[in-house]
Amino acid sequence: MKSSFSSEELMKISRFVNEHIGFSYASDRMSDLSRGYISACQDLGEQSPVSCLKMLDDPAFSRRLEEMLVKKLTIGETYFFRDRNLFSQLRDELLPDLIRMRRLGRKYLRIWSAACSTGEEAYSIAILLRYLIPDISDWEITILATDINPGSLHAAERGVFSKWSFREQSPVPYDNYLSPAPDGRFQISEDIRKMIRFSKLNLITDNYPSDLTGTTTMDIILCRNVLMYFSSDMAALVVDRLNTVLIDKGWLIVSPQEISYAQRPGFIQMKRSSVFLFLKGDSNEEKAIKANTFSEYSLKSDKFQEIIPDEMRDEEQEITLKPFLSPVYPEQIPVLPYISPSAL
User: Fold this and answer.
1) What gap in Å lies between CA 168 and CA 79, rounded to an integer?
2) How far is CA 40 from CA 46, 121, 134, in A?
């Protein structure tokens, strides 16, 4: 197969990838795009780059090519509890406060791991929730984990990982959720696996928020290490759509390298310890934060009122909370030593 393309041909390939997958390639990375495209065409049985290019407008072929390009161009590098500071923040403040609020009424949590790759992030969240909620069987826990790559999702559903996937220090113990698997790997327990629903979803072209995809009324969305591969316009579009998926006062979490992408209208950037988080809120609430009054503020949205039992409501008074003040079960949240899978 032809190993080089004209500028016009590369632009056509680049537009296809950007429109269908969202990835944007700078001029110094066009060789990566070219190699991935050539490999994808070969795997589809097309030996001529000219015929491959001519078929981009064919819907059936373009779908097949998109799926193959996803496998060639996406990077599936991830591991459990990636970003220790973030998971310590989730353990000590964000999740405990959310859990404490939900104990006032209906006990439920909805979390979305977008671009989940092989599932380590979603499994980390599930393990963390098991640690924080002793009566978790009484709760409605939704952990949605989506990715564009079917191969990654298949690996995620199997839940078998090497020692390298556990290289980050764990903020909570997880040895009870691992069992030895062939080749020195480890199988995630059924108790953890059944907490997560894995599903294929393209952040660029698929429908969300949607009841059909389960992408509605999320408390927390983790969308890490994917926005950086999108063009600026595509990244902004994705962040704006994620905003509509969140409940009022819901949280968007991106990687440290993607903070600028999440700085969009409708989000309030907040720093907790060394972690940047994005709270869904309006400009009035942002002004309250800057005036140092955000530590005690009123949550008046309908979404929040739904979790307050009728007998505790007072239409004449505001429901006032103090976020990030105390964990749910203080005695159960020490900083724990790392437990290496090699010791199992």
Assistant:
1) 7
2) 9, 28, 48
Q: How far apart are CA 246 and CA 86, in angstroms?
A: 19
The architecture (CATH level 2) of 84-330 comes to: 3-Layer(aba) Sandwich (3.40)
Separation of alpha carbons 304 and 247, rounded Å = 8
7-20 pLDDT, tens digit per residue, is 888 889 999 999 98
* Cβ count within 10 A of residue 335: 10
Question: Structure tokens of 334?
Answer: 């020490």
CA-to-CA dists, residue 225 to 82, 105, 255, 344, angstroms? 11, 35, 6, 31
Task: Tell how strand 186-188 and strand 160-161 pair up.
Answer: antiparallel
Rounded distance between C-alpha atoms, residue 107 and residue 201, angstroms:
27
Percent helix, percent strand, percent coil in the chain, to nearest 5: 45, 15, 35
Distance CA 59, CA 49 (A): 18
H/E stretch holding 179 reads strand 178-180
Amino acid at 143: I
Q: In what order do the strands lie in the sheet with 160-161?
A: 160-161, 186-188, 178-180
> pLDDT exceeding 90 applies to what percent of the chain?
60
Mean local confidence (pLDDT), 169-183: 93
- Token pair belonging to 127: 């393990």
Distance CA 52, CA 59 (A): 13
Question: How does pLDDT run across 252-268, given as a tens digit for each residue?
Answer: 999 999 999 999 999 99
Q: Is 309 exposed, middle or buried (0-12, 13-18, 19+ CB in 10 A)?
A: exposed
Closest CA to 139 of 112, 111, 108: 108
